[in-house]
Specification:
- With about 325 residues, the chain is α+β, with helices and mostly antiparallel strands.
- The protein has a single domain, classed as Bira Bifunctional Protein, Domain 2 (BirA Bifunctional Protein, domain 2, 2-Layer Sandwich), CATH 3.30.930.10.
- It has 9 helices and 11 strands.
- Strand 9 and strand 10 form a beta hairpin.
- Helix 1 packs antiparallel against helix 3 and helix 4 packs across helix 5.
Length: about 325
């Protein structure tokens, strides 16, 4: 169990006021996200069939929660890890046009997650996706969307300050861009996580780009499934989080694979067999729109804005009893 207990921790808000603040942040943020990025809210599934190829494979080792349904026979069904692939299909199905997009409230179960202050087996995030032209599959377009999301988060800081001035966490005024290879060159003796901590502490907020491929040291900065993000056009939004003295990832996002990058990345991962799945066939046959999209952690955003020490203070989940006991002793109020 990996648990950080901040010195002299004060949650500031009691449990019921925290619940009130959680609702306010979630309601306000999704309204701003839809308005500023021109996204429509749609409903999304909790589970998909395994054979659709729509589930997120994450790092390739996490197993989804699976089951069967009486009315569908023996076809395996999986609770989603994320909606990275499903959203792209939805944009086509619902006839979204150029530069139109969607967002949805995504809930997932990641049973193999290693639980700590930032990680839960229950995942809640705003998943969003927008149609772009193939010519817009560029770094400047990616950066422009990152800046837009950062501006919405900064706006939320001010909104929360008006209602809960005693609890709000003050965020940096700008976000820094750096590639995973530049980080590797800058901090060759540090692990990827240590590099993220170092750069986030220096700049306050950072977007680490180009995650998934091997770096000059032969290692990956982090694992990424080969069939949704283009590894040359993606990244993570990180904030330096003072209460835990570490980088806090708020969003993973990117421009999605086209037919060329999908084949190339599947080949690198020895996963060309996936090309026979319906989702992958649709990309290879250029039947799906070119898109940009990502996820924004709902509980993580609440945690960031309210300076909470544990994600369990802003979401209801399950935790080891040892963690519950240590948190209670430290004044960390798990829901």
């Amino acid at each position: 169990m990996n648990l950080i207990i901040p010195d002299h921790y004060d949650p500031v808000l009691d449990v019921r006021t925290t619940q009130e603040a959680i609702k306010y942040i979630r309601d306000t943020f999704q309204h701003e996200l839809g308005k500023k990025m021109h996204l429509e809210r749609i409903s999304a599934p909790l589970f998909v069939t395994k054979n659709s190829g729509l589930n997120d494979d994450l790092n390739g080792v996490e197993l989804p929660v699976g089951f069967t349904m009486n009315e569908i026979g023996d076809e395996p069904i999986e609770i989603v890890h994320s909606l990275a692939k499903w959203k792209r299909m939805a944009l086509k199905k619902y006839d979204f046009g150029m530069h139109q997009g969607l967002y949805t409230n995504m809930n997932a179960i990641r049973k193999d997650e290693e639980l700590d202050n930032l990680h839960s087996s229950y995942v809640d995030q705003w998943d969003w996706e927008k149609v772009i032209d193939k010519k817009e599959r560029t770094i400047p377009v990616l950066k422009a969307h990152v800046e837009q999301i950062f501006a919405i988060i900064k706006h939320m800081e001010h909104e929360v300050w008006y209602k809960y001035p005693q609890a709000v966490n003050h965020l940096p005024d700008s976000i820094h861009f750096i590639t995973s290879q530049e980080l590797c060159t800058l901090y060759p003796d540090l692990s990827p996580r240590e590099r993220e901590n170092a750069v986030a502490k220096e700049y306050g907020a950072v977007f680490v780009m180009q995650i998934g491929d091997k770096l000059s040291d032969g290692q990956k900065h982090d694992g990424r499934a080969p069939d949704y993000d283009d590894w040359s056009l993606n990244g993570d939004i990180l904030f330096w989080y003072e209460p835990l003295q570490c980088a806090l990832e708020i969003s993973s996002m990117g421009i999605r694979v086209d037919e060329q990058s999908l084949h190339s990345q599947l080949e690198k991962e020895n996963a060309l067999g996936r090309e026979n799945l319906p989702f992958h066939q649709a990309i290879l046959n250029q039947e799906l729109p070119y898109t940009i999209g990502g996820g924004i952690g709902q509980s993580r955003l609440c945690m960031l804005l309210l300076k909470k020490a544990h994600i369990g203070e802003v979401q209801a989940s399950l935790w080891p009893q040892e963690m519950i006991d240590q948190c209670e002793k430290a004044g960390i109020q798990l829901l």
